[in-house]
Design a protein that fits this description.
Structural class: alpha+beta
Distance between the termini: 119 Å
Number of helices: 13
Largest sheet: 8 strands, mixed
Oligomer: single chain
Low-confidence stretches: none
Strand content: 15-25%
Bound molecules: adenosine-5'-triphosphate, magnesium ion
Length: 546
């Protein structure tokens, strides 16, 4: 019977210098890791004329052959179980020439020594008494590059005489999970220290797992709960574990069974963290999930915005203000399914923003994932009706149509049997099914009061607003304002425009005036209420011209 069996071909050795990506960071990680595995408490790194020396105070190298044994390791059983060494790390130095000294012996591995050539192990004339020394050519191992790999390694690392930071990765509060060989602690972004932030906590709103694999940090995205900015610190303790880093670069976790268990443990920690905090804004689904895990959380803090139209866009719609201390339970939600008409939402918002009432009408927007909490169950808005008086003028403006009417009102019926009704200065014309092809999308109704009551941008919002791929916001807004001004000017007619233009500057006269005459030669005569009068002559040049 023919059989086949896996084996390692010698040819792999000839490619050993390509097992690693060749980054300086990778080399720092591998050599610090070896020192730590050798039980070192101190590592001294020195840079001198393009040469780097890494000296540790670990147990030293018993068998030099292990150095070049690709896939073989010389660490003890405990290290095998907790870290699963792969026996490839030192090959990150290939094809550099490296001199290794330890326990009275030394060897210089040349370029070919990494692949096919024999390397002699000699008696070391300088005899290193404790630990291991490696020397090779490299770009400088500056403190700024070493710090991040040293800070959580548990060793004191010194670069050119200067100590790197050294601190525990998690606090006393971390929960020990012996079955996974790690401790887990949940922190908000602000509670991360500078090093944790720089190696993984990328943003205050991000959610990340940050794993300290004995000094080497790897991160993964994980969001078991919707709360923003939670970071899950996982500190490997050195106990046996099946949490593994992917080879050879070891920059991410292997998604095996232990990884799944780790995620489950993190999920539980996340809910416990929220339980301790005492308040949250989790979706209802996650509130239920906490219950399944045996954690009874309070309901989410009521989260809503007053009004129904998004006020995060530019331009912003007219604002709906929530009266001070007004209870949420007296507000209304918009149930889109009841009417199916998109303009109902707009008109309910405009009624709340522009109407006047004895009893406040406050519609609120609550994201649907809060459905299920008692506070999210509110009476809803039902029928919405717009009544418009006689049309005065209608024009296409921006990407819609603007019509001025004599009177305008909106009426809303709510599920708790109330009726809210008021005159308003703006509403959206309910869509009639057949307005013909090419008809402007939006049809906005206003009364003449809208000119004083509303900002142009609040009308612009309903007529298409800002186009992202057009001019700047300000340029587009002033173009719209110009169109809108001429809309109002046309509405009042040329005589009224003239009258307004003449009257406006007279309001700047110092004291009360009674009458004024304007003459074709530019003279202005003013009679004040106190009986005094004044004639203002145009400048000489202008008078001649006139
Ligand atoms: N600083 C050191 N002190 C003592 N022994 C060392 C040191 N560096 C390397 N060794 C020995 O050389 C062997 C090979 O090291 P190498 O980094 O290639 O592999 P490894 O550490 O076993 O596995 P990994 O691929 O996970 O790094 C080690 O198993 C260890 O026996
Ligand atoms: Mg190693």
């Amino acid at each position: 019977m023919e059989t086949i069996q896996a084996c390692v071909n010698q040819r792999l050795l000839t490619k050993a210098d390509r097992l690693f990506t060749g980054t300086l960071n990778g080399r720092i990680i591998e050599l610090l890791q070896n020192a730590r595995r050798a039980g070192a408490t101190k590592v001294a790194i020195t840079n001198e004329g393009g040469w780097v020396t890494v000296k540790d105070n670990g147990q030293g190298i018993g068998d030099f052959a292990k150095l070049l044994d690709l896939g073989g390791s010389g660490w003890n059983e405990a290290c095998e179980e907790s870290e699963d060494p792969a026996g490839v790390g030192i090959f990150c130095l290939a094809p550099r020439e490296v001199t290794v000294r330890s326990r009275g012996k030394m060897a210089t591995i040349t370029k070919d020594g990494w692949t096919i050539a024999q390397t002699e192990v000699l008696k070391d004339p300088q005899s290193v008494r404790k630990g291991t020394v490696l020397r090779f050519q490299d770009e400088p191992w500056e403190t700024s590059r070493v710090d991040i790999n040293a800070v959580f390694s548990g060793m004191q690392v010194i670069v050119d005489g200067k100590r790197c930071p050294n601190m525990p990765f998690v606090s006393e509060e971390a929960i020990h999970h012996p079955e996974l060989g790690c401790k887990i602690e949940v922190r908000e972004y602000d509670q991360l220290n500078q090093w944790q932030k720089s190696c993984g906590g990328d943003h205050w709103s991000g959610n990340k797992g940050i794993v300290n694999f004995h000094g080497q940090i790897v991160t993964f995205d994980y969001r078991p709960v919707g709360e923003r900015g939670l970071h899950y610190l996982v500190d490997l303790t050195g106990e046996p574990t099946h949490i593994r880093l992917m080879l050879p670069a070891r920059t991410c976790l292997v998604e095996n069974e232990a990884y799944k268990q780790l995620l489950e443990a993190i999920e539980l920690s996340a809910y416990r963290f929220i339980e301790r905090k005492g308040e949250h804004t989790l979706p209802y689904k996650e509130f239920l999930r906490a219950g399944e895990l045996g954690i009874i959380l309070p309901e989410a803090t009521p989260t809503f915005t007053a009004g129904l139209l998004s006020n995060t866009e530019s331009p912003e719609p007219v604002e709906v203000a929530m009266p001070k201390d007004f209870p949420l339970s007296k507000c209304y939600r918009f149930a889109p399914n009841t009417s199916g008409k998109e303009e109902d939402e707009v008109n309910a918002h405009l009624l709340a923003a522009l109407g006047t009432f004895n009893e406040p009408f406050v519609p609120v927007d609550i994201i649907s994932f809060y459905d299920g909490y008692s506070w999210a169950s509110l009476p809803t808005i039902g029928k919405v009706e717009v009544k418009a008086g006689k049309q005065l003028q209608s024009k296409y403006l921006w990407s819609g149509k603007l019509t001025c009417v004599e009177e305008l009102s909106i009426t809303v019926e709510t599920s708790d049997g109330k009726i809210f009704s008021s005159t308003v200065c703006m509403a959206k014309e309910p869509q009639t099914p057949k307005e013909g092809p090419g008809w402007a999308d939006e049809h906005i109704l206003v009364t003449a009061q809208a000119n004083d009551r509303l900002q142009p941008s609040e009308i612009w919002y309903h007529l298409g607003g800002w186009y992202e791929d057009g001019d700047t916001y300000d340029t587009q807004l002033s173009a719209f304002e110009e169109d809108l001004n001429s809309f109002w000017a046309d509405l009042i007619g040329p005589d009224e425009q003239l009258r307004q233009n003449i009257i406006a500057p007279l309001n700047r006269i110092g004291f009360e005036w009674k009458a004024t005459h304007v003459y074709p030669d530019g003279r202005v005569w003013i009679e004040h209420t106190d009986g005094t009068e004044k004639t203002i002559q145009p400048p000489a040049a202008m008078a001649t011209a006139a």
